[in-house]
Amino acid sequence: MDKAQLDREFSDLYRAHLRDVYSYAYYRVGNHHDAEDLTEQTFLQAYRHYERALRESDGRPLRPWLIRIAHNLAANLYRDRARKPQTPIEDTGALSAMHTTEDLVEGRDELARILVGVKELPDDRREALIMRFALGMDNREIARAMGRTDGATKVLIHRAIKQLEEIVATRGGVS
Amino acid sequence: MSDHAAADIEGLLRQAFKPVEPPESLSMRLETTLQELTDLAAEELESWELRSMRDPRNWVRPVAAAAIGTAAGAGLVVVRVRSQHRKQRKHVQGIELAERTVKAAADEVKRLVDRF
């Protein structure tokens, strides 16, 4: 494939999945500022490795690959900030501040309770739910993005939903 | 967990996790950056081809991947410096900003040179 065609295909990929990557980034880091940086870096890194990814994908969709890049970059962001104590506390807090997503549900209490409950889940369960419900990814896509088997992913999502239900029930349930 | 309860939770999750539209400014910035990278990669490739034509050993050597990688790296200098500016903008003005810009660009170029 020549470079011009490669660039055209990457442009298509970018247009098709910008919203997915941004949604993932936003729900992952909890604020627009970091979500923008994460999205930008994800696509730049994707561009650099696109040809190889295309070759190795064997025709499979590349969305899981993009989300995996975003996932790794987000993990790096958390790690870097944890190593820099000079970072203002309020900035660090914003990383896990899913409460900002409550703005999105426009005051609906039960949805806000769900998001607060999601925040309490372990990272891998929370990420799996973001991929499933914010991005509409199926088990196979989530498995590829998270580097797990399809079976392990199915179990992960089942347990995440079960744990979330318990958290919400403990907090007073949903109406 | 009953099937009904699970279905309720899943329904609520679908409503709560609605997709988030990226800001227009992000789309514009990203598209500009990607265009810059594409242009840089094309220039790099042309430049390499001209040089390599003088050496027959390189005539059939595949270079596109390396050219794209180098150009993307150079593009990242622009993006990273710009990103650092955004974070520092509140605290830095005038001459100090210019000094930081030059230093940041130099550091980034040095890092890339070391890598390649």
Structure description:
The complex is a heterodimer of chains A (about 180) and B (about 120). Chain A is mainly α and about 180 residues long. Chain A is about 75% helix and about 0% strand. Chain A has eight helices and no strands. Chain A is globular and about 60 Å long. Chain B has four helices and no strands. In chain B, helix 2 packs antiparallel against helix 3 and helix 3 packs antiparallel against helix 4. At the A-B interface, helix 1, helix 2, helix 5, helix 6 and helix 8 of A face helix 1, helix 2 and helix 3 of B.
Summarize the structure.
Chain A is mainly α and 175 residues long. In chain A, 76% of the residues lie in helices and 0% in strands.
Label this structure with key terms.
heterodimer; A: 175 residues; mainly alpha; B: mainly alpha; 4 helices
What oligomeric state do these chains adopt?
heterodimer
Structural class of chain A: mainly alpha
What is the overall number of helices of chain A?
A: 8
**Overall body shape of chain B:** elongated
Name the helicity range of chain B: over 70%
Question: What form of chain A results from the Cα inertia axes?
Answer: globular
Tally of DSSP helical segments of chain B? 4
**β content of chain B, as a range?**
under 5%
Strand content of chain A: under 5%
